Amino acid sequence: MVLTATRKNCKALPNQIKHNLGLDKLTTGGLQVLFKDESGIYLQAQQVKVVKKATKSPIRPAHMSQQVKHPEKVMFWCCFSAQGTGQLHICEGMMNSAKYMDVIDSRIKPQLQEHFPNGDYVLQQDLAPCHTCKAVQRHYEVSNIKIMEWPGNSPDSAPIENLWANIKSRLQNFDYTGKENVIKSVVEV
């Protein structure tokens, strides 16, 4: 199940930001690129203090560390192009091929139509198994969605990864101890 966050769709990024990020020139073979990816954000959970010291030595702050046991994770999906950002969506559970095909139909196709009404686009995605399985590849072919060839093990090459890193960095100033707080914090960022 994919839920839509309550954030308004940003129709266009300011021209200065596009220029600074190089998005005003994002084309490949004359086609503009839609970058998309999903990312998980761990909830700040109740932390457990662990003391590691010799039996008879006094407890010092250096002996203590805080650990989170079994943190919960919330998955988000987003996309952007030179035309602006797409809507932020919350994905229930981990992404698999069936959920991803639902995202293609309910999220990617509408974003492609909105950003590229003339059809001059190519979709960039990483090589996650749910993106590259045969069923999803057939679904892309039937839907006439053009996919950019992308090298394996190159997450730093995708600009969307920088967007997720920026969001996660800015989240450190927010309270996200519960699922609702995580969603609210990501939407605010």
TrEMBL record:
Listed Pfam families:
DDE_3
State the organism named in the record: Oopsacas minuta
- Which superkingdom? Eukaryota
Q: Which GO terms describe its molecular function?
A: nucleic acid binding
Name the InterPro entries on file.
RNaseH_sf, Tc1-like_DDE_dom, Transposase_5
Which segments constitute the Tc1-like transposase DDE domain?
Answer: 32-174
Entries under PANTHER family matching the protein: SI:DKEY-77F5.3, TRANSPOSABLE ELEMENT-RELATED
Return the protein name.
Answer: Tc1-like transposase DDE domain-containing protein
